[in-house]
Amino acid sequence: MNREKTATEANDIMLVRGSPGRGQAKVTHAVVVIFLEFFAWGLLTTPMLTVLHETFPQHTFLINGLVHGVKGFLSFLSAPLIGALSDIWGRKSFLLMTVFFTCAPIPFMRISPWWYFALISVSGMFAVTFSVIFAYVADITEEHERSTAYGLVSATFAASLVTSPAIGAYLSNQYGDSLVVLVATVIAVADIAFVFFVVPESLPDKMRLTSWGFPISWEQADPFASLRRVGKDTTVLLICVTVFLSYLPEAGQYSSFFLYLRQVIDFSPAAIAAFIAMVGILSIVAQTLLLSVLMRTIGNKNTVLLGLGFQLFQLAWYGFGSEPWMMWAAGTVAAMSSITFPAVSALVSHSASPDQQGVVQGMITGIRGLCNGLGPALYGFIFFLFNVELTDMGPVAGRPTQNTERSVIPGPPFLFGACAVLFALLVAIFIPEHQRLADIKTCSARKSSGTAAHAQNASPLATPTSDAEDIEPLLQDSSM
C-alpha cells in the first residue's frame, strides 16, 4: 500500500514538473516571459512621454492618471478571477492571454495614439501576468525552492526595467520613436510566440478540467472578498491602514513621476533613463542586502517605521524640489523607502499562523491592488486641480510664467502623498510586533494548494512563505 502511495506521489510530481514528451516546465520559462514583456514596455518609456503630451497637451497629468487608474482598477477586479480560472484550466492558456492583451497596445503608439491609450486602459482586465507567473512557479517548485525562484523572477523584472529605458532613449535619440516602437513590437510578438510554442503547461493534467464548465464560485472570483475580512483583527486592521496610506501615494507616483520629471523638471530622455537605472539598482540593493540586515538588527516593525520615514522624506523632497539635483538626491532616498512593503509582509508572515498566511497576505495585496487604481487617478486629479501643466516640452528658458507662480510647491501630489505617509507612520507605531493574529480563516483560505493562493491574489507578492519572497523592485509598472 505504501509503495502504491509513493508511486502515485511520484507520478504527481512528474505531472507537475512536466514529462519528456510534452516538455518540462522550468522557472526559466517564467523568467523569459517576464523579461521580454517588461523589456518591451521599458523601451517605450521615452516615446510614451512624448506621445502622451502631444495627444493630450492641455490635461496631460489628468489623462495619464485616468488611463493608469482605470487600468489598475480593472486589474484589481480581474486578478482573482483569472487566477482562479488558471487553477482549473491551466496556466499556459491564461499566460498567453495576459501577455497578448498586455502587449497589444504597443504598436498602436504609432498607428493611433488615441487607440493606444484606450487599449492600455482596457488591457487592465488582463494585465495580471505576474499573478499567473507566480502561480506557474509555485506549480513547478518545492516549498523550500520557492523563495529563490520568486527572487529570480523579481530580479529579472527589475533588470528589464533598469536596462530597457536607457536602450529605448538611445534608439529614440539616434533613429526616432518609430524604430523604438517597432523593436518593442517585435519583442512583444517574440514573447507571445515563446509562450505559445515553447512554454509547457505547469498544472498537472488531473487537476485541470477537460470541459469548459462552471468550476469556480463567486467567492473565489470576488476581488473584495479579502478586503471584507480586514476588520476581524485589530492588528490586521492597523497593518492594512498603514499599507493603504503608504501605497496610495506610491502607486500614484509610479504612474506620473517620469512624466513629471520630463515636463516640470525638464529631464532629458537620457537623464530619465539614467534615473530609472540608478533608483532601480539602489532599490534592489536595499531590498536584498540592507533589508535583511535591518530586520535582523532592529526587527520587522522598526524596519517598517524606518521605511515609512524614508518615504515621507522622499515625497516631501519631490513635492518641494524644483531643481534636477534635488530629484537625483531624492531618488536615493526613494530606493531606501522600497524596504517598506517587504518589511510589512515579513511582519505579517511572522505574526500569522502557517494556515493563515494566504488569507492575511491576500488582504494586504488586495489593498495594494485597490491603490493601483485609486492612486494614479488621485495624482492626476491633484495635478489638474493645481494646474500643473505645460504647453510645451522645451528647455527651462521656454517655460511658461505660470511655473514661477507655483514654484514654492512644484509637485502638490507628492506633498499630499507625504501627508498620507505621515498618517501611515503614526498608525504603524501602534502595530504590535509579537502578537499572533486572530483566527480569520474562511473557506477559501483553507485551500491546501499553495498555487491557488498565489493565483487568487491581485499581486505577485501573494502568500509568501519567507521574507525573500517579498522582494519587489521599486519601479514596478513605471513604464506602462
Write the layout of secondary structure elements.
Blueprint lengths: L1 H16 L9 H17 L1 H11 L4 H30 L1 H13 L4 H4 L1 H10 L6 H12 L2 H33 L1 H21 L20 H4 L12 H30 L5 H29 L2 H21 L3 H14 L2 H12 L5 H29 L16 H4 L6 H17 L21 H7 L24
* Low-confidence residue ranges: 1-22, 390-407, 441-480
Q: Structural class of the helix and strand makeup?
A: mainly alpha
Shape call: globular
Largest sheet, in brief, is: none
Mean pLDDT: 75
Our measurement of the CA-to-CA distance between the termini, rounded to an integer number of angstroms, reads 54 Å
The beta-strand count equals: 0
Q: Using only CA atoms, what is the Rg? A: 22 Å
Order of helices and strands: HHHHHHHHHHHHHHHHHHHH
Helix content: 55-70%
Strand content: under 5%
Q: What is the count of DSSP helices, taking H or I runs of 4+ residues?
A: 20
